[in-house]
Amino acid sequence: MTKLPTPPPTPPENEDPDVPGLRTWSGVYRFVLGSFVAYVLLLALFTYWFAR
Amino acid sequence: MSTIDYVVLIGTMLGIALYGYWKTRGPRDLSSYLRGRGGIGWGTIGLSVMATQASAITFLSTPGQAYESGMAFVQNYFGMPLALIIICAVFLPIYRRLNVYTAYEYLGHRFDPKTRLLGASLFLLQRGLAAGITIYAPAIILSTVLGWRLDLTILVTGLLVIAYTVSGGSEAVSVTQKLQMFVIFAGMVTAFVVLVAKMPAGIGLVEATTVAGGFGKLEAIDFSLNPNTRYTVWSGILGGVFLSLSYFGTDQSQVQRYLTGASLRESRLGLMFNAVFKIPMQFFILLLGALVFVFYQFERPPVFFNQTLWNTHAQAESGATLRSLESSYAALHEHKEASIHAWLEARRGADPAAEAAAKAALLEAHAASETVRSEAKAALVAADPRAKIKDSDFVFITFVLTQLPHGVIGLLIAVIFAAALSSVASELNALGSTTTIDLYRHVIQRDGSDTHYVKASKLFTMLWGGIAISFALFANMVENLIEAVNIIGSIFYGVVLGLFIVAFFIKRIGGTAVFLAAVAAQTLVIALFFTSNIGYLWFNLIGCGACVGFSLILQPLLPGSGNRRAAA
Known about the structure:
The structure holds two protein chains of two kinds. By secondary structure, chain A is mainly α. In chain A, 52% of the residues lie in helices and 0% in strands. Chain A is built from one helix and no strands. The longest helix of chain A has 27 residues, at 25-51. Chain B is mainly alpha-helical. Chain B has 21 helices and no strands. In chain B, helix 8 packs across helix 18 (450-473). Chain B is globular, with a radius of gyration of 25 Å. The interface between A and B is medium-sized, with 24 and 33 residues.
């Protein structure tokens, strides 16, 4: 039986974020940017609502 | 404060310090002393980074800021998520790949020893001064309102933080910061719940926010392009990216926090934790301040929140004007309270005209009340020309001491101390590390053993702690000291950021060009400081821009520039 070659260890820079729903670092960064946009929109809504 | 408050306060502070000491006891080599034993996860890193940024002044001043001028300050944090993404994607992998202890070591790898020394020296100068202020600023407020001796407050705070920072190094700072953040969260949530519960009958959270909105205290967002508006979305994003890149990417007190991570993943997630949760946290603290404002619309506030200062002059024989203004303020408050109830009643009706009239009457009553408050501040300055009339730092602490139940008061004072200790610990840890790695090991003693450098790092941390305490003890001898430190920071911060921007993003520029550019940029900023009236915050931008610009100009003029290769 031929032994399968051991895959090289993952370089630390390519280590996955291992966050549920976010498989890559670019996914994590997009999530953070999305949260930021959501905060700005919610704060704009908040400001508008209480300024009436 | 009662006995139970002191038990809660002392128990919390000593308990956290002892836990930090116990958890990180045992012998250490240089790496584990400066970067921890390698097992620190992203949650601890995230809280540690957050605790380093949030000083005691954050919890004393921010609610007062919302009380005075609303929630627009939250926009100041808008650049932070973007800057943290850049740091995670660009700065952090390089720091970890080079296995550096300090950010300035990277400058040595990328450029040369002299540029590394320049970056480290600029950091030590500005952060060494700031550590004294981080101890002094809450101590002066707490000693004023609680009647404690200022020197003892400074000494106890300083010695406690030195003890656990020196004994356990970077890991002790991180583990204590985690607990300190839990105390801070618990204290702020408790204050919020008690505040809402203490609102008068018929005023719940919905009515309270409605009243805050009616007074314009909930205007959190401003999209205007007016450069004279202090906080806008645009200034928050542009200025915030710039300042956050400097602070989180190049200031060792922050860099050291995320370099303690067990892996690149843990460090990155710790920073992303801050990118997601910092804005909501600041929003919550500001909302607390806005609700304290509402509370004081139904409960008569003091005409001037630094009551110790006010009473000193009002109770004197010459204080008749102050006492008279205090009486006028009390009478106007009753009128204003009635106006608020009338406006809320009008809102419940279906007549927009009646509601508008009631709101106009309310705002008129508020303006009259604020006029008397301004007159009171002017009268105070007339009585004592050295009196500081900015009393917003005293708003939240006055609410805590006069309105919260015993036990909770102790918890909230513990929040302020926890925030002070957590920031100072990071600063001392970073000052000790930078002095050891970038000055002592790099210049003075190159071939010492690990044990030797750990001892040196402990000694330097103690030395910086002693300098910070001494600076805090004599801080009141200097007028406008906090502003003076901010000015010094702005003079040097821009050039340091310029060094790192060139290092990370302009690979063709070498050490000599960037070093000469940084020296020229620093000279330019210092010359502008002495010869122009430019607002000091602009020095950050000028210093950074000049350092990058001069580097680009100088590099082609230097001999051998065509053969230069980037090291990183």
